[in-house]
Write a structure and sequence with these properties.
Protein name: S-layer family protein
Keywords: Repeat
Organism: Intestinimonas butyriciproducens
Strand content: 25-35%
Helix content: 10-25%
Number of helices: 7
InterPro entries: Ig-like_dom, Ig-like_dom_sf, Ig-like_fold, Ig_sub, SLH_dom
Number of strands: 25
Pfam family, one: SLH
Shape: elongated
């Protein structure tokens, strides 16, 4: 190698710069370079400037741009302004522009009461890129992270007054209602207590009583409100709700309805909600001993009602009279079946004659047509009835007069404007409702 010339000429390489080199090569012992020489620098093909096939060869090469000098880490944050409520979970993260070659990256979070970098106190254990900010107390604090790393053997840091800070303001949160007041049905003279449960700081409670004429404040500051010795004229149909408040604001609970009825509270059927069309009917049926449900906690209102169940309901509503006959003529009605007496009584009173001369089909589902017919016959088949407005109730069927009678007496209004759906299965809820409308007058 005869000579090397750099452009730009310098003793040390600068970052973020492009360098080119011109190299002169001389052969020895009179040898010559190839006519098409293959010369590489850094594994890349160099350019032949002159001298191919001669004793002196000049080549050039342009090096890729050198990396920029890295002296300062620049931080950015997932957020720089946070407003949170007490005990709310708040997490922040720091991101840097560190190159891939960075090593020994370390994080340290600081907190300070002022919006000034460098005034903070190191937070013990906060040595990761992410940090969960505590929100146990009201107020405003500022947070920042100092990042250090090794780049090309040099230690660099984000420790700069230009680094942003994260402002975190913690305020008292609105109350949160965790349990709503519940609607109740009770007998006159009973005491009733409504309650609400809420979370939050420094809570206040204001109960309200709502009637048709408006709402008014009642009770004292507390999560419960009790009404002594309720009565039908004053309390039936009223609603109660609670406004829970603190310095952050207020929230209002659901309204709870108070029903005062001689029937008293519903049995503890979890599948019979307050306000359902059949709720009062189920209460009546339980009160009268017509049914005790399908278990101690369920009534199964949507389950189909069988022929055995409907005649049993009718028999019990009539006071469970003893049948005159001792044995049933139906082969499918066992003497010890719960509905045995009811079936014999129903046959004796012309309510049913079975599905054949020897069968009653106790487990068959009872249709709407059969249900109103059984009811009509239990009332001695009265002749009066409304005009037939149903397109699916033909004149002359076994149930035509029963449907007319049921409509006139408010027992049913059909399933639509012009439909009765005589062949549709009848649910337990529908049957006790029909019974209630027929007999609780």
């Amino acid at each position: 190698m005869a000579a090397v010339s750099w452009d730009p000429a310098c003793d040390s390489f600068l970052g973020n710069s492009v360098y080119s080199v011109l190299v002169s090569l001389e052969s020895k012992d009179g040898m010559k370079f190839a006519a098409v020489p293959a010369v590489t620098i850094n594994g890349e093909t160099a350019k032949v400037v002159s001298g191919a096939g001669s004793e002196e060869l000049k080549i050039s090469y342009i090096f890729p741009k050198t990396p920029a000098a890295y002296d300062l880490i620049t931080n950015t944050y997932s957020t720089t302004d946070v407003t949170a409520t007490l005990k709310e979970y708040v997490a922040v993260s720091v991101y840097t522009d560190l190159p891939d070659m960075a090593k020994n990256i370390k994080y340290q979070w600081y907190k300070t009461a002022s919006n000034n970098y460098g005034t903070g106190t190191a937070i013990s254990g906060a040595t990761a890129a992410g940090y969960a900010i505590p929100t146990e107390a009201e107020g405003t604090m500022y947070y920042y992270c100092v990042v250090t790393a090794s780049v090309d053997g040099k230690t660099v840091t984000s420790d700069s007054s230009d680094s942003p800070l994260i402002k975190v303001t913690v305020k008292k949160g609105l109350p949160a209602i965790t349990a709503q007041p519940k609607s109740v049905t009770v007998k006159p003279g009973a005491d009733v207590t409504f309650s609400v449960a809420a979370t939050g700081e420094a809570l206040n409670y204001q109960w309200w009583r709502e009637t048709k004429s408006g709402a008014s404040k009642v009770g004292t500051n507390g999560p419960t409100y009790t009404i002594k010795a309720v009565n039908i004229p004053d309390d039936n149909g009223t609603a109660y709700y609670c406004v829970v408040s603190n310095k952050a604001g207020e929230v209002t609970s659901d309204k709870a309805k108070l029903t005062v009825s001689e029937l008293g509270a519903m049995t503890a059927f979890s599948d019979v909600p307050e306000g359902a069309y059949y709720t009062d009917a189920v209460a009546w049926a339980v009160e009268k001993g017509v049914t005790s449900g399908t278990s101690s906690t369920t009534f199964s209102p949507n389950a189909d009602c069988t022929r055995a169940q409907i005649v049993t309901f009718l028999w019990r509503a009539a006071g469970s009279p003893a049948p005159k006959s001792k044995e049933s003529s139906f082969a499918d009605v066992a003497a010890d079946a719960y509905y045995s007496d009811a079936v014999r009584w129903a046959v004796e009173n012309g309510i049913t004659s079975g599905t054949s001369a020897t069968t009653f089909s106790p487990n068959a589902t009872c249709t709407r047509a059969q249900t109103v017919t059984f009811l009509w016959r239990s009332q001695k088949s009265p002749a009066d009835g409304a005009a037939n407005a149903f397109t699916d109730v033909a004149e002359g069927t076994y149930y035509t007069d029963a449907v007319k009678w049921a409509v006139k007496n408010g027992i049913t209004s059909g399933t639509g404007t012009n439909t009765f759906s005589p062949n549709a299965d009848c649910s337990r809820a529908q049957i006790v409702t029909f019974l209630h409308r027929c007999m609780a007058k």
